[in-house]
Amino acid sequence: MVKTPSGSNRTGRKIGQKVKKGKLKASSRRWIERHINDPYVQRAKLEGYRARAAFKLLEIDEKHGILKGARRIIDLGAAPGSWSQIAAKVTNSTEEDIRVVGIDFLEVAPIPGVTLLQMDFLDDNAPRAIMDALRGTPDLVISDMAAPTTGHQKTDHLRTMHLCEVAAHFAVSVLAEGGHFLAKTFQGGTERDLLNLLKQNFRQVIHIKPGSSRAESVEMFLLAKGFKGQKHVADEAAAAVDEVEEDDEA
Ligand SMILES: C[S@@+](CC[C@H](N)C(=O)[O-])C[C@H]1O[C@@H](n2cnc3c(N)ncnc32)[C@H](O)[C@@H]1O
């Protein structure tokens, strides 16, 4: 079970530490204090994960069972790499038999068994590059992508929602039947068109706020389970074209 970490100091840090007032801006000092006192940050260090984000994926998996049986995984927005670390483990991915591909425009330090692409996922060439590197059909697409913050909340929100949408279209175009898609979104932010796309093509669509996601953050996750398959997507597209043609004739 993914337990809520207690205030233990096995990492050598005590919970409740303060950062001395000095040259730092108050907001930066508050961020550092929150970070070093965050029990999930400390637990990530102890367990060898590169980010506290690991516990969001593990918590979601514990409740919704998305990792079990996954043979090939794509990790969108992979840096610094904790989700890819988990993905490599569950797929038994090795350098000889790569089963995980991660992409980020930031550099990610190597993770055994993971091919890491340093490029923008919104680049037109990204989908092809990911699929070439994976050399097989994924049964899980996970996206923790968040747009770099501009300081303008609404802009940041819209840009992250756009990433979620592009990730969803990508997942629908590459997933194996029965596969799952997990992506970061925002509270109240999921567009109707995106929800419709997922509801049409997956058996179940759920919004999740993991306990390890900071309470003050508006971050949520969108989980679409049980992809209905590429044939279903093609049939839906053909039906939509028929409808348009009928409307034209009317
Ligand atoms: C919250 S972090 C991901 C943490 C990661 N899941 C982990 O466990 O280590 C979000 C990442 O999304 C990446 N990102 C945002 N927009 C992107 C884009 N267009 N293409 C590639 N990566 C992107 C950022 O660079 C950032 O590293």
Automatic annotation (TrEMBL):
<dbReference type="InterPro" id="IPR002877">
    <property type="entry name" value="RNA_MeTrfase_FtsJ_dom"/>
</dbReference>
<dbReference type="Pfam" id="PF01728">
    <property type="entry name" value="FtsJ"/>
</dbReference>
<keyword id="KW-0489">Methyltransferase</keyword>
<dbReference type="InterPro" id="IPR050082">
    <property type="entry name" value="RNA_methyltr_RlmE"/>
</dbReference>
<dbReference type="GO" id="GO:0005737">
    <property type="term" value="C:cytoplasm"/>
</dbReference>
<feature type="binding site">
    <location>
        <position position="120"/>
    </location>
    <ligand>
        <name>S-adenosyl-L-methionine</name>
    </ligand>
</feature>
<dbReference type="InterPro" id="IPR029063">
    <property type="entry name" value="SAM-dependent_MTases_sf"/>
</dbReference>
<keyword id="KW-0698">rRNA processing</keyword>
<feature type="binding site">
    <location>
        <position position="81"/>
    </location>
    <ligand>
        <name>S-adenosyl-L-methionine</name>
    </ligand>
</feature>
<protein>
    <recommendedName>
        <fullName>Ribosomal RNA large subunit methyltransferase E</fullName>
        <ecNumber>2.1.1.166</ecNumber>
    </recommendedName>
</protein>
<comment type="similarity">
    <text>Belongs to the class I-like SAM-binding methyltransferase superfamily. RNA methyltransferase RlmE family.</text>
</comment>
<dbReference type="GO" id="GO:0008650">
    <property type="term" value="F:rRNA (uridine-2'-O-)-methyltransferase activity"/>
</dbReference>
<feature type="domain" description="Ribosomal RNA methyltransferase FtsJ">
    <location>
        <begin position="49"/>
        <end position="227"/>
    </location>
</feature>
<feature type="region of interest" description="Disordered">
    <location>
        <begin position="1"/>
        <end position="20"/>
    </location>
</feature>
<feature type="binding site">
    <location>
        <position position="104"/>
    </location>
    <ligand>
        <name>S-adenosyl-L-methionine</name>
    </ligand>
</feature>
<feature type="compositionally biased region" description="Polar residues">
    <location>
        <begin position="1"/>
        <end position="10"/>
    </location>
</feature>
<dbReference type="InterPro" id="IPR015507">
    <property type="entry name" value="rRNA-MeTfrase_E"/>
</dbReference>
<feature type="binding site">
    <location>
        <position position="144"/>
    </location>
    <ligand>
        <name>S-adenosyl-L-methionine</name>
    </ligand>
</feature>
<keyword id="KW-0963">Cytoplasm</keyword>
<feature type="binding site">
    <location>
        <position position="83"/>
    </location>
    <ligand>
        <name>S-adenosyl-L-methionine</name>
    </ligand>
</feature>
<comment type="function">
    <text>Specifically methylates the uridine in position 2552 of 23S rRNA at the 2'-O position of the ribose in the fully assembled 50S ribosomal subunit.</text>
</comment>
<keyword id="KW-0808">Transferase</keyword>
<feature type="compositionally biased region" description="Basic residues">
    <location>
        <begin position="11"/>
        <end position="20"/>
    </location>
</feature>
<keyword id="KW-0949">S-adenosyl-L-methionine</keyword>
<feature type="active site" description="Proton acceptor">
    <location>
        <position position="184"/>
    </location>
</feature>
